[in-house]
Amino acid sequence: VGATLSSTTLACAPIAEKNKVVLLTPSAQSPKITYAGDFIFRLFPSSSIEGKYLANVARRLKVRRAAVLYINNDYGLGLKEVVIKELQKNEVFFPVVETYDPMNTNFRSYIEKVRRANADVLLLLGYPKDMALVLKQMHELGLKIKTVAPDAFEAEEIISIAGEAAEGVLYVYPILPNAEYTKKVAKKFKERYGKIMNIYNGMGYDAVKVLSYVIDNCIRNNRYTGECIKQELYNLKDFPGVTGAITFDQYGDVVERPFEVRIVSHGGFKKYEFK
Questions:
Q1: Cα-Cα-Cα-Cα dihedral sign, residues 165, 167, 172, 173
Q2: Contact between 274 and 261 (Cβ < 8 Å)
Q3: pTM of the predicted model, to two decimals?
Q4: Residue-wise pLDDT tens digits, 115-160
Q5: Fewer CB atoms near the end CB (10 Å): N or C, the chain?
């Protein structure tokens, strides 16, 4: 099971592929992972899917001039490319498209570029800590702009670091099913760890359950090999996971999961409906 990030998954993939070892990532999203190899699988929807949802949120905000700040790794690059490609279909202009180092903590020069560009929407594509710092520094510099973020935005760091600067930010998030099985596992998770199970926790749980199931099938048939595990995953149809039914396509990507739009409101993460 792993890795969790796109860059490390893509670094591991050639080694796993060469040795015919199944690699199942619960959370990596780069579109490149789709073509990383026959033994490479993932449970989280690709950025090629999430990016379309992000673009649709920006459309609902009637974007005409969009600024893009994205983290400089495979995750950020993949999201950026999909979002821009989608919004260019609507003749959206991009006066600012800037990338930043994952270790960066000072975003003031980027924020000033966004201000000078007179953009009406900021697409902030990063990880929780850096996105929180961007929002905090925007607030300190007095820049107010509609901001749209990816699913990584729903994290404790956003509230603890950005505070009120995160209010009103819209983001997309995969929908956890309202099923009894999901509720049961979420209840146990809360009892064990003292916090609400998020989508990443659920994906990690499902990764272990899925591999356990297919490995058992291989052992029962005296075929406990990487080749058997790989084929069993491809044969899987609607496996009952806490994050929803799991089926992999011919590239090892989970069949599309639905996303919803959420917002930070009164210091919490809540579902959002456009009026």
A1: positive
A2: yes
A3: 0.88
A4: 999 999 999 999 999 999 999 999 999 999 999 999 999 998 999 9
A5: C
Contact 122, 101 (CB under 8 A): no
CB 154 within 8 A of CB 198: yes
Residue of 203, 243, 235 lying closest to 25 (CA atoms): 203
Q: How far is C-alpha 235 from the geometric centre of its chain's CA atoms? A: 25
Distance CA 198, CA 196 (A): 6
Query: Peptide bond before 11: cis, by omega within 30 degrees of 0?
Result: no
Go through the chain and tell me how many residues it has.
Answer: 275
User: Does an H or E element contain 129, and which?
Assistant: helix 128-140
Buried b (16+ CB within 10 A) or exposed e, 66-98: bbbbbbbbbbbbbbbebbbebbeeeebebebeb
Other CB atoms within 10 Å distance of the CB of residue 191:
8
Beta 65-71 vs 121-125: how paired, if at all?
parallel
Residues 87 and 58: beta-carbon distance below 8 Å: yes
Name the token pair of 91: 């003749």
Q: Around 91, how many Cα atoms within 13 Å sit in the side-chain half-sphere? A: 0
Helix 128-140 vs helix 108-117: angle between axes, to the nearest 10 degrees?
60
